[in-house]
Design brief:
The complex is a heterodimer of chains A (about 300) and B (about 625). By secondary structure, chain A is of the alpha/beta class. Chain A has helices at about 15, 20-35, 65-70, 110-125, 150-160, 170-180, 195-210, 220-225, 250-270, 285-300; strands spanning about 45-55, 75-80, 85-95, 130-135, 140-145, 185-190, 215-220, 235, 245, 275-280. The chains are: A alpha/beta (about 300), B alpha/beta (about 625).
Chain lengths: ~300, ~625
């Protein structure tokens, strides 16, 4: 059963971007999301009893303690504290190209960092071990997966210190990380994937080969998807500083065609490999990406 | 030089520039975007903006040029030449070439002063040269080449004309209208250069400068020669400040005929009398004056002919002493020894038997009555007027308006009506155009005509007729109508003391004399002419010449041509007096400039080329725009 949300609107990324710290952003997004879900997302293989609680409509009837009902004729819910049963690795692309952001939204990097923080917060809350790997053409920062209570703060601090800089080489860090992981789990890749698609897909399949589930968040700015430019513009590459002067009206059609083909290729080939692919527009609420993660996680358990 | 007939339309071209100015003022800096997916842009068929910008600039230029051409076409452009060129300043040097400057060394000084004016003319000004005496000649049209102006000055020479400032200023003004400019008059400032009441008009803003050549030297002049029945009298004038003895010599038919000596006080005239009846064809009287002006040292006269123009009076009965008593005596009035005009009277009925040859010698015909004037007589007068004769019509009680219409020939629109039962009412006459020659004697005192009382008048009017005088009631008093090659003056009352008391006033005689003289001047009848009045085809130099009379064919007559004696008068003007006679008129001469400009524009039709060019540009713009979009 897929995760659904209430009819209330999600938080606009522009609003989230104005929140103070990354922790606050993550908490706001995650708590807001969870409070709107009909069904608790937290479920594991082994749990530890925590307390009883009066049943209220909407609770899963599987959680009703029938013995107590037999004794007291009351519906009581048994609450458990979940235990860690999943290693989750967040891979965040910090190459120069992620630094692009149109005027009214977060940059792809900010969006990706916020998404990573939210995922980390969510995972930490359900006692999953979460790690972070930031990369551009190499791995620039790596935080091993852990479910310790203080680990979330370390992850958030690490995210906060990251800056975009160098060129992209997605496949190389993918292979490096795939080689280091020994335990099955989930790898979440947050990147704009503006690199050689073939190499990237090969790197992601490497995880599949190691029995690790992969979720890909393909983060693109709205400008990159729609190419809304009007005036003749000098486009400067964020990574190579190469400049191209072009009239958007003339190149738009071909650009969109190229971008559409790239997205479609990722969607098709990754889907065929059992890799979850989610195109994320930085104008979209972060909750949508989180829901996608939760849906994948529920399938993984 | 490119000029425009309707330059206000050029404002439209300025409006075409507004989008460009706005574009420049509000131009945004070059758009630069740091972008992630540049690789995908590069893979698209990029049209580099340099090329597109060039194309768009070309499009903009085509559109703006098309708009400018449209405005240009409406502004009616033309390449201005001559007077139509109005943008630059002009300096016109008016050099006096009257004979008063012919004394030794004087004209050379005038030429040097004129060259100085040319040299000092503001840089960038066009410089032109006008020489003037009785008439003005443009010897160097305004131009930037000052060498031409200096050459024209060097080639100028004195003639036999008299100074007339008005002609000089009029000619110079033709080249100034519409432009800021300066007229520099190089002259000896003779007082007689302005006629009585004379004024000259120049365009507003024109600067008049006067360069004084200096006063005339001591000079003797023969100012008149009168051959009488028993003697010949010459008048000699001493224009110097000291008394002199003038030695005067008479030659008849180029043979010496007598000498005389006349003692003359400073600035005085005296007469030299040569006794005995002058016999021969022509006489010349010469005074010895080597240091003075040479042109006025000799004067010519025709002997044996009458100098009195003859005048025909057409009355009811043909008896001038009865029908035109006052007029006959006024015309006969002259000096003690000589009458001004020879008067002949005829009735309308008598004209029925006349021929053209009989009528032709008369300087003027004065129609005082139409009684008995039959068809032949009317046609005779009409033919006379058509051939250049002068006709004066006194529209008194004896004149029938319908008959007078025939007298002026076919096509005449003259209407003369006498109001039925109109009661006599006093009114006076006032000149409407005081500069007309008829009113020349009254230029100094025009009010003198106001003493005449007119009790009854006729109504006179005609298309194309010029009103010369009106009554104080507003009715027309005197008009001049076209009549072939001749002249016709129509007076709205009689000249015989019936409807008015004009003949009883002192103004009657000069009025009649000037009117007849004016009418007669259209034809050559006199035997003595001033240089300025010499008949066409006669060389403008003093002397005795033979001219062909109109009739009979092949016959010739002697006439004497003399210099204007007024030029010998040493009286001088001050520069302020000269300036005060000049009126600056707003838009004076602009009409002529505009007329010439319009004519040039009509000949060139540049606006059609502008529109054609605009059409071509718009076609090119259409093609380019289709390729750009």
């Amino acid at each position: 059963m897929p995760w659904t949300a209430h009819d209330r609107p999600f938080l606009d990324p522009a609003v989230v971007s104005r929140l103070g710290t990354l922790e606050l952003k993550a908490r706001t997004v995650v708590e807001g999301l969870l409070s709107g879900l009909h069904r608790s997302p937290f479920k594991g293989f082994s749990v530890e009893f925590a307390e009883y609680r009066q049943y209220i409509p909407g609770d899963d009837i599987h959680t009703i303690d029938w013995k107590v009902y037999a004794r007291s004729d009351r519906y009581v819910i048994k609450k458990f504290e979940e235990e860690t049963n999943l290693d989750c690795h967040l891979m965040l692309d910090v190459s120069g190209s992620m630094g692009y952001g149109s005027h009214h939204a977060m940059s792809k990097f900010e969006y990706g960092a916020c998404l990573a923080a939210s995922l980390g917060y969510l995972m930490n809350r359900q006692r999953d071990a979460v790690g972070l790997t930031a990369f551009d053409e190499t791995i620039v920062s790596m935080l091993p997966a852990s479910s310790r209570p203080g680990h979330l703060m370390a992850l958030l601090v690490t995210l906060d210190r990251l800056r975009t800089a160098h060129r992209t080489d997605v496949s190389k860090p993918l292979h490096q990380l795939a080689d280091t992981l020994t335990k099955r789990g989930v790898v979440v890749l947050i990147s704009d994937l503006l690199d050689d698609p073939e190499e990237i897909i090969r790197g992601l399949k490497h995880f599949q080969f190691r029995g690790i589930d992969v979720i890909v968040f393909h983060v693109l700015d709205h400008d990159e998807i729609e190419f809304p430019f009007e005036r003749a513009t000098r486009f400067e590459d964020l990574e190579t500083s190469e400049e191209v002067m072009a009239v958007p009206g003339v190149v738009r059609e071909q650009y969109l065609k190229q971008m559409g083909a790239l997205i479609e290729r990722y969607r098709r080939e990754l889907g065929a490999s059992g890799i979850d692919y989610q195109l994320v527009d930085t104008n979209q609420p972060l909750e949508i990406a989180l829901l996608s993660y939760l849906s994948t996680r529920s399938r993984s358990l | 030089m490119l000029s425009f007939l309707a330059p206000m339309f050029l404002a439209g071209a300025a409006a075409a520039a507004v989008p460009i100015v706005l574009h420049l003022l509000k131009r945004e800096p070059e758009a630069r975007v740091k972008f992630a997916a540049v690789k995908l842009i590069k893979e698209a068929p990029v049209e580099y903006t340099d090329r597109r910008r060039l194309r768009e600039l070309l499009l903009l230029a085509l559109r703006v040029t098309a708009l400018i051409l449209l405005a240009l076409a409406f502004a009616r452009p033309f390449v201005a030449t001559g007077a139509a060129v109005v943008s630059t300043g002009v300096t016109v040097v008016a050099l006096d070439t009257s004979y008063s400057l012919a004394a030794p060394g004087r004209f050379a000084r005038a030429q040097q002063l004129a060259r100085d004016v040319v040299a000092k003319a503001p840089p960038g000004d066009l410089v032109g040269v006008v020489t003037f005496a009785d008439e003005a000649d443009i010897v160097a049209a305004p131009g930037s080449d000052r060498t031409l102006a200096n050459d024209a000055i060097a080639q100028a020479a004195t003639g036999f004309g008299a100074t007339r400032y008005r002609s000089a200023l009029s000619a110079a003004s033709q080249h100034l209208a519409g432009r800021h400019g300066t007229i520099v008059v190089v002259t000896d400032l003779q007082e007689n250069g302005w006629d009585a009441g004379d004024r000259a008009s120049v365009p507003e803003g024109t600067t008049i400068q006067v360069v004084d050549v200096g006063a005339m030297p001591a000079n003797l002049a023969v100012t008149a020669v009168r051959p009488l029945a028993d003697r010949l009298v010459a008048t000699v004038h001493n224009g110097g400040a000291a008394a002199r003895e003038a030695r005067v010599h008479l030659t008849i038919d180029n043979r010496p005929a007598g000498d005389a000596v006349v003692s003359l006080g400073a600035n005085q005239s005296g007469e030299a009398t040569f006794a005995g009846a002058p016999r021969g064809a022509s006489a010349a009287v010469r005074v010895e004056d080597p240091g003075g002006i040479q042109a006025d040292n000799v004067r010519y006269a025709v002997l044996g002919g009458t100098s009195k123009p003859s005048v025909l009076l057409i009355t009811g009965s043909g008896d001038a002493s009865r029908d035109a008593f006052y007029l006959q005596h006024a015309l006969a009035t002259g000096t003690a020894a000589d009458a001004a005009f020879q008067v002949t009277a005829a009735s309308g009925a008598q004209l029925a038997a006349w021929t053209d040859d009989q009528l032709s010698p008369f300087a003027a015909a004065l129609l005082l009555s139409t009684r008995g004037l039959e068809r032949h007589g009317r046609e005779l007068l009409a033919g006379y007027a058509q051939r250049g004769g002068g006709v004066f019509v006194a529209a008194g009680p004896d004149v029938d308006g319908d008959v007078v219409g025939d007298v002026l020939g076919a096509g005449s629109t003259l209407r003369i009506t006498t109001p039925e039962g109109a009661k006599p009412a006093p009114r006076v006459l006032a000149p409407a155009d005081g500069r007309h020659p008829v009113f020349h004697p009254f230029a100094g005192n025009p009010a003198s005509l106001g003493l005449v009382t007119f009790q009854s008048i006729a109504r006179i009017a005609g298309t194309g007729c010029q009103t010369l005088a009106r009554f104080t009631t507003g009715d027309t008093a005197l008009i001049e109508c076209p009549a072939g090659d001749g002249r016709a003056l129509i007076f709205a009352s009689d000249l015989n003391n019936r409807w008015n008391d004009f003949p009883l006033h002192a103004t009657f005689v000069p009025f009649v004399h000037e009117a007849v003289r004016y009418l007669g001047s259209a034809r050559a009848h006199a035997v003595e002419y001033l240089i300025a009045d010499a008949p066409a085809g006669v060389k403008r130099a003093p002397g005795v010449v033979t001219v062909n009379a109109a009739r009979p064919a092949g016959a010739g007559r002697l006439i004497a041509i003399n210099v204007d004696p007024r030029e010998s008068d040493p009286a001088r003007l001050s520069v302020d007096d000269f300036q005060s006679a000049v009126t600056r008129l707003k838009d004076a001469g602009r009409g002529a400039i505009q007329g010439e400009a319009r004519q040039q524009e009509d000949q060139q039709h540049l606006w059609q080329y502008a529109l054609a060019a605009m059409a071509v540009l718009l076609a090119a713009e259409g093609v380019l725009a289709a390729r750009t979009s």
